[in-house]
């Protein structure tokens, strides 16, 4: 049962971390030496904010991957526990029928 609780706590932490992320921006930032009217152009004074957005996006991807992994493991544990409970119930029912109870 502790594994379930640990995974649930891990997922809760991931959700909280996701909620705390700021602005996001996928992609990369590269320096070019000629200025053009490209829509992806970032002014020099905006570079620190864009870098933060890029890091936030990478953090988002990492957190989502962590959430998916933990969710799959949690699902597997719950399925295994449910199977064990059903097997135990069938075993008890077979035992009671055998003993005429």
Question: Which properties best describe this structure?
Answer:
101 residues; mainly alpha; 2 helices; 70% helix
Structure write-up:
This protein is mostly helical. It has one domain. It is built from 2 helices and no strands. Helix 1 runs antiparallel to helix 2. The longest helix has 52 residues. It starts with a helix and ends with a helix. The model has no long low-confidence stretch (mean pLDDT 89).
Total count of strands: 0
Query: What is the tally of helical segments?
Result: 2
**Unreliable sequence segments:** none
**By helix and strand content, what is the structural category?**
mainly alpha
Rg over C-alpha atoms, rounded to the nearest angstrom: 25 Å
Average pLDDT = 89
End-to-end distance: 32 Å
β-sheet strand percentage: under 5%
Domain unit count: 1
SSE layout:
Layout (H helix, E strand, L loop, with lengths): L1 H19 L26 H52 L3
Helix pairs in contact: 1-2
Structure summarized in a few sentences:
The protein has helices at 2-20, 47-98.
């Amino acid at each position: 049962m502790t594994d379930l609780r640990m995974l649930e706590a891990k997922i809760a932490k991931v959700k909280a971390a996701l909620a705390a992320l700021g602005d996001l921006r996928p992609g990369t930032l590269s320096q070019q030496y000629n200025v053009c009217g490209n829509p992806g152009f970032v002014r020099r004074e905006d570079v620190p904010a864009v870098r933060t957005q890029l890091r936030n996006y990478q953090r988002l991807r990492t957190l989502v991957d962590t959430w998916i992994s933990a969710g799959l493991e949690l699902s597997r544990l719950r399925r295994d526990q449910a199977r064990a409970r059903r097997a135990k119930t069938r075993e008890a029912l077979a035992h009671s029928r055998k003993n005429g109870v």
